[in-house]
Amino acid sequence: MTSVKQRTSDTMGTIYELTNESGTIVRVSPEGARLLDWVIPIEDGRDIVAGYDSIKGHIDARYYGATIGPVAGRIAGTRFVIDGKEYQTEDNDGGNTLHGGFKGLDTETWITETFEDASEAGVIFTTNRADGTGGFPGNVRYQVTYTLTNNNELSIAYDAKTDQATLFNPTNHGYFNLTGDTQQAIDTHLIQINARHVAETNDDVTTTGEKVAVDGTKFDFTKERAIGATLLDDPFLLDHDQEWDLQVTSPDQKVRLTVTTDRPAVVIYTTGTGEVGAPMKTGPMTNHGAMAIETQGVPGTEKFSQFGDIVLRPDTPFHSVTTYRAHF
User: Fold this and answer.
1) Contact, 270 vs 230, CB < 8 A?
2) Contacts of 47 by beta carbon, 8 Å cutoff, 6+ apart
């Protein structure tokens, strides 16, 4: 059986705890529709999600485990055009709009509904935004659904409806360390990404509109290998030609995480010196202590149609699912 329970913690506030028949536990928070914990039933319970030791830490740092939007990544120059009309968003990143601006979806306290049956349990988070919020047009209803199954799959579904054309490119900014301890670097994690190209980026991490073959570069994870000291903040253009799109394996081989998505890209971000010492739930963050796995549309798609389309229109509601499966 699966179950979902609401709990209250002095440090984490209101949390919703999903449990399946294997003993896997997933905890989520309405603060940012956020993934807090994913505890695998090996040893004394190995939590593979990196996060702060309090909900205040999460809110102050903003992005760990949170739902990101309306647009994940950077809107270059804080401007975009839809149907010939220009819109201006907030400058919160040196001339660009990062992860929706100063008041992205990660800053919302979401309305919560739960569900459970014999095979799965989950939480539906919902929030509404008025036309013009953060510079984005449209009165929009956003919904994020976390579902844990007895197959040890955690799926995150994104849905949205708008009354006028706007941009929507969400992601979850979950950070992972499959050792369960962010005091251990991820260097010996094994990773495979089924992507033969990355989107080229400028020095400010905005995309150029070009794609670059990974062959012979630090981005070549088409065959499984250790991540090593590689620092990443880059969009991998997924080929979608295998059963899963991304796989990460713990150094001790006890946990393997596969990720399957319908989105065209995954941004991999590895923590560096700027995060060292942050008060994580397993102690101070080490250098290269975690990696974010952000499935999404290619950043910059609003300017580069060759990457697709992230315009949300009234006659076409948005729906997308990313599924993470833990093998242990």
Assistant:
1) yes
2) 37, 38, 39, 40, 180, 281, 282
Q: Per-residue pLDDT averaged across 295-320, rounded? A: 98
Are residues 26 and 101 in contact, defined by beta-carbon separation less than 8 angstroms? no
Contacts with 314 (C-beta within 8 Å, 6 or more apart), sequence order:
161, 162, 163, 164, 165
Compute the distance between CA of residue 53 and CA of residue 282 in angstroms, rounded to an integer.
8
The 3-state DSSP class for residue 65 equals: coil
By the 8 A CB rule, do 66 and 59 touch?
Answer: no
Is pLDDT above 90 for 315? Answer: yes
Confidence of residue 74 (pLDDT cuts 50, 70, 90): very high
Q: CATH number of the domain at 3-327, out of 2.70.98.10, 3.40.50.720, 3.10.450.50, 3.40.190.10?
A: 2.70.98.10
Q: CA angle, 33 as apex, 32 and 39 as ends, to 5°?
A: 115
Maximum pairwise Cα distance, the chain: 57
Structure tokens at 167: 């941009």
Three-state DSSP at 135 gives helix
How far is Cα 88 from Cα 9, in angstroms, rounded to an integer? 39
Dihedral Cα 91, 95, 97, 98, nearest 10 deg: -110
Tally of CA atoms within 13 A in the half-sphere of 283 that contains its CB: 9
Check residue 1 and give its pLDDT: 86
Mean of pLDDT over the chain: 98
pLDDT in tens, 236-276: 999 999 999 999 999 999 999 999 999 999 999 999 999 99
Rounded to an integer, what distance in angstroms lies between the CA atom of residue 124 and that of residue 18?
Answer: 12
C-beta of residue 173 within 8 angstroms of C-beta of residue 65: yes
Domain boundaries, the chain: 3-327
Residue 2 confidence (pLDDT) above 90: yes
**Could you tell me the CA-to-CA distances from 53 to 17, 48, 50 in Å, in that order?**
17, 14, 10
